[in-house]
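Run log // design_07
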């Protein structure tokens, strides 16, 4: 993401979320709906570590099938999916190639280094996307002096790229290049369904060529925990060992899995509503004072930059918090707004009504 701020920090902590009437900070802020909670209550459960939880087994079967893979495993979070995948494809001293804005660099507490001893080769693509030629240039020739290039990791959609969607052909070309060089491939699918809905493509087509792929039950799907990592039977067996070692083994996880199955049935098509709302917010923000650039709005994320002579992102966020509205700071002059199941058009209208004063420094 050349020329764009990659540093970020959290929005100032609200003393309590009680006063927040509309939370656009992230799609992780949605709460499970009553129908989803009913599915949780009704779930048939057993001991997951022993393979006895029928609802988790069904979710994993469905996840693997959706992604066109042989097997899948339920993990507590998307972060654990990424870290386990990295550790199973790489070994200490080897290297993963990914975008400089990737979640594995920015938000996983140094996990690749701490857990896997893995080096990162960061690429400056556009909006968190890179090309097969970028991969070709990044792969290191065998040398006793250099780390061994082992893995290419993509993020579909790209969070800090403003929810940018990898075009299918580009995804496949990157995977093919990685394979031709003997590398493994991993897809962070935290928002894979947003990409599928936005581009009208099937998850298994997106995942083609990627050794491991995961989907999040939180974020757009509206659940409260859990992510499903899919891959070959061999890779998922290996992932199970790491899950056990790192304390990710679960017991009656069918209650979580039931929320995932509910979300797969009810919360995918509706992502189009989140995208329409984000597009409408983005269009309105583009005409507001002191906004220098809005990244293309392709899914549920609106990222925009503030002009040098106006308030900082911190100041904008604080002014909005006073009005019960929360958005995120992702750089000194960069703001992020995310739409999801927990916000609606009325909240978006309220945000767009309050934003001009906050941006002008008079809010
Ligand atoms: C692109 C991306 N990858 C991974 C994650 C981690 O997911 P989780 O919060 O389930 O650990 C997130 C969370 O925001 C994300 O945006």
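design_07 sequence
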């Amino acid at each position: 993401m050349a020329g764009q701020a990659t540093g970020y920090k959290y929005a100032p902590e609200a003393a309590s979320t009680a006063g927040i009437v509309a939370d656009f900070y992230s799609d992780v802020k949605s709460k499970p709906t009553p129908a989803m909670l009913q599915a949780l209550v009704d779930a048939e459960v057993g001991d997951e570590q022993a393979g006895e939880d029928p609802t988790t087994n069904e979710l994993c079967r469905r996840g693997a099938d959706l992604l066109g893979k042989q097997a899948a495993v339920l993990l507590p979070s998307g972060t654990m999916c990424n870290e386990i995948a990295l550790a199973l494809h790489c070994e200490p001293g080897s290297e993963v190639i990914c975008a400089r804005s990737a979640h594995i660099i920015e938000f996983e507490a140094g996990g690749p280094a701490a857990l896997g001893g893995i080096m990162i080769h960061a690429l400056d693509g556009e909006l968190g996307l890179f090309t097969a030629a970028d991969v070709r240039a990044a792969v290191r020739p065998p040398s006793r002096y250099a780390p061994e290039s082992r893995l290419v990791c993509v993020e579909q959609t790209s969070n800090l790229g403003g929810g940018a969607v990898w075009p299918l052909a580009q995804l496949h070309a990157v995977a093919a290049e990685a394979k031709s060089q003997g590398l493994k491939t991993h897809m962070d699918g935290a928002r894979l369904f947003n990409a599928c809905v936005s581009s009208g493509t099937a998850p298994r087509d997106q995942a083609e060529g990627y050794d491991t792929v995961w989907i999040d039950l939180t974020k757009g799907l509206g659940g409260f925990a859990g992510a499903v990592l899919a891959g070959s039977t061999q890779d998922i067996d290996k992932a199970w060992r790491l899950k056990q070692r790192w304390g990710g083994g679960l017991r009656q996880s069918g209650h979580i899995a039931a929320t995932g199955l509910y979300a797969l049935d009810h919360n995918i098509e509706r992502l189009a509503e989140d995208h329409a709302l984000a597009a409408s917010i983005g269009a309105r923000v583009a005409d507001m004072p002191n906004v220098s650039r809005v990244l293309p709005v392709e899914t549920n994320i609106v990222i925009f930059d503030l002009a040098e002579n106006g308030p900082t992102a911190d100041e904008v966020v604080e002014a909005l918090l006073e009005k019960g509205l929360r958005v995120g700071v992702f750089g000194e002059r960069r703001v992020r707004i995310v739409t999801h199941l927990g916000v609606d058009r009325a909240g978006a209208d309220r945000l767009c009504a309050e934003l001009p004063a906050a941006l002008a420094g008079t809010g």
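Residues 271-286 form the longest helix (16 residues).
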